[in-house]
Design goal:
- The protein has 326 residues and is α/β, with parallel strands linked by helices.
- Bound molecules: S-adenosylmethionine and iron/sulfur cluster.
């Protein structure tokens, strides 16, 4: 499927819940209300949107949240979406707390990759940043994923926590074949209160500490990360630089919120309410599919050309990341 500017849209993130077992301060601090369950799409409704996306050219799906693994039917959904004709990869992004408990089921469901969000390796700082998370469980999940040969990546938002913090994270990729990716904090929801490190500066600091860092041109996934190799490391280091490395001209993605709203850009509220169609009284299933497809195609045609994070007054997205899924 192509948008109005000719970009190929083949990647969809599906947020399957707005609930979470952590309280990351920049995403879902204490006090944020969860939606009533009836507002959240059912497994069948999400599968229907994924199937519709696949007919229109979506090839890669990322399951996200809230925390996707707090939803009991998460692994079933992965399994069902993995079987949809046209879908080539299904991956998940998780805080990792419930990963060890779910790894076998995810593997059995055919998961193609796991992104684990981890902003620090310091157990006290982790507890503080996440509102009580125990890092040991996350690291256990990471090691089990590696042992099961499921490709795993670490995602860390680039908070200004000092040089030792990013070095500790980078070192995860020395002996393990995991990519460690740094993500510039976006001024969305509570993220507005946490200034991001500038990745141009971060890269210079890393190059000074790790001589011989070189651009890694191999394909690592389907997103906008730019990768580097560090001599002697099994994994690569990646940068997702939404603010200081605008990558909108190659954007390939759309997002489905847990309430069934199809978002076409992180920065804007632009999109379309698919839940309205999913729950409309349309007796003919083929007619419902046609309407879903038409709504998705129209939203994609009108996908904004670029984000405006550098002009925060123009951001129209008012939701927190917990409702969008990153
Ligand atoms: N709970 C899962 C997790 O933590 O991976 C999935 C949902 S979480 C919203 C997805 C990703 O969004 C996490 O890596 C999180 O750090 C990131 N995130 C949250 N708020 C952000 C912001 N304002 N800017 C950039 N990334 C953000
Ligand atoms: Fe939960 Fe992920 Fe948001 Fe942290 S970043 S509060 S783990 S959804």
């Amino acid at each position: 499927m192509r948008d109005g500017t000719g970009r190929i849209i083949d990647y969809m993130r599906i947020s399957i819940t707005d609930r979470c077992n952590l309280r990351c301060r920049y995403c879902m601090p204490d006090g944020i209300q969860s939606l009533p369950r009836r507002e959240i799409l059912t497994l069948e409704e999400m599968e229907a949107v994924a199937a519709c996306g696949a007919r229109l050219g979506i090839r890669h799906i990322k399951i996200t949240g809230g925390e996707p693994l707090v939803r009991k039917d998460c692994c079933d959904l992965v399994k069902r979406i993995r079987k949809i004709p046209g879908i080539e990869t299904v991956t998940i992004t998780t805080n990792g707390i419930l990963l060890a408990d779910n790894l076998d089921r995810l593997a059995e469901a055919g998961i193609d990759g796991i992104n684990i969000s981890l902003d620090t390796l310091d157990p006290d700082r982790y507890r503080e940043l996440t509102g009580g998370g125990e890092i040991g469980r996350v690291l256990e999940g990471l090691d089990l994923a590696a042992a099961a040969h499921i490709p795993a990546k670490i995602n860390a938002v680039s908070l200004d926590l000092g040089e030792q913090n990013w070095k500790d994270l980078l070192e995860l990729g020395r002996e393990r074949p995991v990519d460690v990716r740094f993500i510039e904090m976006m001024p969305i929801g509570c993220g507005k209160n946490f200034p991001s490190l500038d990745h141009r500066v971060l890269l210079k600091q890393m190059e000074a500490c790790y001589p011989g860092m070189e651009k890694d041109g191999r394909r690592h996934g389907f997103g906008p990360a730019v990768y580097y190799k560090i001599p002697g490391f099994k994994g690569s280091v990646g940068f997702i630089s939404a603010i200081h490395g605008k990558f909108c001209s190659s954007c390939n993605r759309i997002r489905l919120t847990a309430q069934g709203y199809l978002k076409t850009c992180l920065c804007y509220s632009a999109g379309t309410d698919l839940r309205k169609i999913l729950r409309a009284d349309i007796p003919d299933p083929a007619e419902k599919e046609r309407r879903l497809e038409a709504a998705m195609e129209e939203a994609v045609r009108n996908k904004p050309q670029a984000h405006c994070f550098e002009r925060p007054e123009e951001i129209t997205e008012e939701e927190n990341m917990i409702r969008i899924g990153g």
